[in-house]
Amino acid sequence: MKAGIGALLLLLLCAGTGRGQTARRIRFADLPPGWEESESSLESTLRDLEQRTRERFREGESDHLVAYLLQSKQFTAEPAIEPALSAWEYLGDGRREAMLPAGVERRADDFLRASPGKDPRLAYFQKLAGSGGKDFLRSAYDRCMRFLLEKEQRQERGQAPADLYRERGLSVDTQVEAGFAVWTGLAVQQSLQPEWRADRVLIVGPGLDLAPRTGMLELFPPQSYQPFAVADALLSLGLARRDRLRIHCLDIHPLVVDFFGGFSKRSEPLLHLVSGLRREQLSSDFEEYFRRLGGSIGREQSLRLPPPLAGHLGKALRIENDVARGVTADRINILTGRLDPSPGYDLAVATNILVYFDARELRLALANIGSMLRPGGILLHNEVRPEIDAIAAALGLIPVQGRVVRLSPEAGSGKPLLDSFVLHRRR
Ligand SMILES: C[S@@+](CC[C@H](N)C(=O)[O-])C[C@H]1O[C@@H](n2cnc3c(N)ncnc32)[C@H](O)[C@@H]1O
Fold first, then answer.
1. E strand or H helix at 406, and its extent?
2. How much is the pTM?
3. Binding site membership of 365 for ligand 1 (Cβ less than 6 Å)
4. CATH superfamily, with its number, for domain 178-426
């Protein structure tokens, strides 16, 4: 590890949370029971994991850049290009193109020429591309398209593309749709254990709507909304008391941590919630969820969506200041770091993050998350993978319930859109 990066990591890991806990790197005694490696190899194991996370983070950022390059309307009059279609055009039928497709070429030129103005995404991605110019964009595009094509081809062959996520770059994406399975999971947890309460909550990887691979929405600056959706769910279900509720987020992405650092200080903490899917693609249950979303944490303001988004569900939400102040964040790699002493959270939510981890990484992530829960605390995630139950149970996170949640209408044609939740209770 280079000295500069090492010093930065140490600084990050020693950063006090201001709540009596310190974010620290794990020690040998923290490793899951039966860990195969010796104490003397711990340092190199952690360094490898951190190095790998940095590489995957960089790959993920370059995938977001390509998604932005193909879809944004901020820097060009060229039509948006659907990334999966671009992958077919570039590489389909066994083609081995060295040239960017013409539409991508024109967008790349416009992107490199554009003045960032006030668009935070454009400024962010131009900085990411740095002085690499067209070569940088070409190689980012090539890598991203190869991944997309393989994913599409596996899907066409009826194979689950999930294993690909264990190799790919880390995405920071989030959508309001993710809140529905969490809300449903919390309602089920309440029915299983009516006396259970969750005033102290951990969100692992809350994400940010930076530049999703498809259906990019760029009407508003990047936002993170999962902690607010969780706060709203807990309060509306009567599972938390507003004066006690505190939500802490852990994420490796600096933009996510910065978002929460700045949000509560705004004179008007305002979220713009827009569904990634159109109304007719969503079930009436989801629509009802969205209609109520935010009622316990803020005041709704009208939001007129422009014509291309007219079919989407949308609302602006002025978050009450006390709720906004109750959401905080730290930068931690959940594979190699944890808060110490244990904050004893009542609830940990980790959706669309465990999918990125292989079995070894899952053991570390779940050991770290479990260590921050109180006995009887609940972990809620949405990764239905048989190995997770066994890994979690060995760590004392007993699986108690899991269900598939349907986002699309019952009568809809085509493949149903599904999410899920899984609940584990810490022994
Ligand atoms: C795909 S997003 C999911 C966002 C949100 N939870 C949702 O369901 O919409 C994954 C998030 O996990 C974060 N993440 C990925 N690997 C991580 C790690 N090793 N430690 C901490 N955060 C990580 C990413 O930065 C990102 O914010």
1. strand 397-406
2. 0.94
3. no
4. Vaccinia Virus protein VP39 (3.40.50.150)
Q: Rounded to whole angstroms, how far apart are CA atoms 207 and 352?
A: 9
Give Cα separations from 330 to 164, 217, 266, 359 (angstroms). Answer: 28, 26, 19, 25
Ligand 1 site-directed mutation target among 327, 353, 422, most atoms within 8 Å of CB: 353
Domain ranges of the chain: 54-165, 178-426
179-183, 199-203, 276-280, 346-350: least confidently modelled range: 276-280
> Among 50, 202, 251, which residue has the most ligand 1 atoms within 8 Å of its CB, making it the best to mutate?
251
Residue 212 · residue 178 · CB < 8 Å: no
Is the confidence at residue 124, as pLDDT, over 60? yes
| pLDDT tens by residue, 42-79 | 999 999 999 999 999 999 999 999 999 999 999 999 99
Under 8 Å between Cβ of 403 and 184: yes
Atom of ligand 1 nearest to the CA of 253: 25
Is the CB of 352 inside a 6 Å radius of any atom of ligand 1? yes
